[in-house]
Every structure is written in structure tokens, then in C-alpha cells.
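Cast an eye over this sequence plus C-alpha cells and explain the fold to me:
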Amino acid sequence: MRVYIPSTLRLLSAACNAGELGPAPLAAYAVTPALREWYTEGDEEELEYAAMAQAARASVGLLAADSGTARRRVVIAAEVSAVPPADGSVRLGDARLELHVVIPWRMVASVHLDTAAAVPVVRKAADSWEAAQNGDDDAVFALDSCEGEDLMWYATQEIPDLLAAEGPRGRSANGSAHGSD
């Protein structure tokens, strides 16, 4: 089963260096029955995109909690065994899962990352995260604005070079981003 794990550049670097994603439990997003029921017309690719979008939104929450990391959403795609929903309180359209295992790096399929151009939008969303969780309309709008920013795709063999280019705090020296759609 393909899962999408919200992350940050700092967490991605730690996972890459450790050779695993952890510790358990890990929040993840996937094509769940609740998501499939919500998107009755969607094909598998559209459903996976919706799950990844939910993971990208959760990544903003991680950014809000870590002011020292670059303001770029990171989503790690990995292959795992099928897992149950987080807690039985799943809402219609929810792709959320909870993984109770550490994921070996070899199970990572790809990484999805904001471009440097998305940083201002993502920064505003991260700064507004808490207010958005409390229903503030302007903050929710800032968070929703991230959805207009495409995440770039990186193969696993590109990740060490990507992290080296970003530097120890996940900030690119020249602000550029590479990768392909």
C-alpha cells in the first residue's frame, strides 16, 4: 500500500541519515475506504493525489511546530503493508492512518517537495496554522492557499543530493529548487 507521510526537510534529512522513518507511531495518509467513498468518481491516481494533498497539509502543521526548518512542505511516499485507520473516528474523505512500525528507507518510493517559489505562501500558512485549527477564516484561507502550489517529485536516489544542496538547516543557499513534475 502506498502511503504519504508528512515531513519537513529537517525530518527528511534525519530519516535519510538514519536509514528509516520513525519513531512509530507515524501519521500517514493513503487511499482509505473513507477517502474512496468520498471521491466516488475518482480513479486511483486522483485518490492518491487527494491522499498526498492531505499529507502536504499536515506537513504545514509540522512546519508550524519547527520554526528552524525551511518553509517547504515535504511528503514522503513509501510502500507499506495495509494498515487500519488511526482510531476508528474516521470522517468521510479522511485519508489519515497511523503506522505502528518504523519504515526502512528502502521502502521509500519518492519525495515530494515545494519549490523555493512556494516558500512565501507556505510560510504564511505555517504562521497561521494554530489560528486555522481554531477556525479563523483568514488563517484557513492562508492554509488553503498552499494547495495551489505544486510539489516537485524527487526519486530516492536524488534525495541525498537534494539535502546536500539545501544545507544543514534545510535552507538552500541560492533559493533554487530542482526536480520534475
About this structure: The longest strand covers residues 108-114. Residues 2-165 form one domain. Strands lie at 2-7, 20-21, 26-29, 74-79, 96-99, 103-104, 108-114, 151-155.
